[in-house]
Specification:
Length: 167
């Protein structure tokens, strides 16, 4: 994400171009590429920092325990949240950023903690809820540039991944 944002910054400064067009453009064929690209793209370095720190923490937790099935879980949250955003996102806008994955990981870790029936996953669920639970306000419809649709689809993708991974 950092490399992509650095390249995007250089392109913007030197040529007046941006990579943001590779984000999710809802219900358009070119916008389908955004399902894979959008979590890597950010509006600016502040947007990147706002996503990179929680994403690092949540991915560390996810990959810490193999019972979370980290690779399939991350892949499903990435693709399902992106496709959901492509389906329900506001038309005429480009949806970028890793927040859909952040919302998906938070929802996944909380729901998995309830479904896995282990004290460790329950403790992690509680800690994640305390640390990140306030973000769920972001799934509510709102005006402005924030993709609440991506947040909602990410959270739903996280719940679906936890349900499919239950033991």
């Amino acid at each position: 994400m950092c490399v992509v944002e650095f390249v995007d910054h250089l392109l913007r400064q030197q040529k007046g171009l941006t990579l943001d067009g590779f984000g999710i453009v809802p219900r358009t064929v070119p916008g389908l590429a955004g399902i894979l690209c959008s979590p890597l793209l950010h509006a600016n370095f502040a947007h990147l920092a706002a996503n990179a720190i929680p994403l690092f923490v949540l991915l560390t937790i996810l990959f810490w325990d193999r019972h979370y099935r980290p690779w399939p879980t991350l892949a499903s949250i990435w693709v399902v949240s992106g496709f959901g955003t492509w389906l329900i996102g506001r038309g005429g806008s480009v949806h970028i950023g890793a927040s859909s994955i952040i919302f998906g990981l938070v929802a996944y870790l909380i729901v998995a903690g309830l479904l896995m029936r282990s004290w460790r996953s329950a403790l992690i669920a509680l800690l994640v809820l305390l640390a990140f639970g306030g973000i769920f306000y972001g799934v509510l419809p709102q005006e402005g540039p924030v993709s609440w649709e991506g947040h909602l689809c990410g959270a739903l993708a996280g719940v679906a991944a936890a349900w499919s991974n239950r033991r």
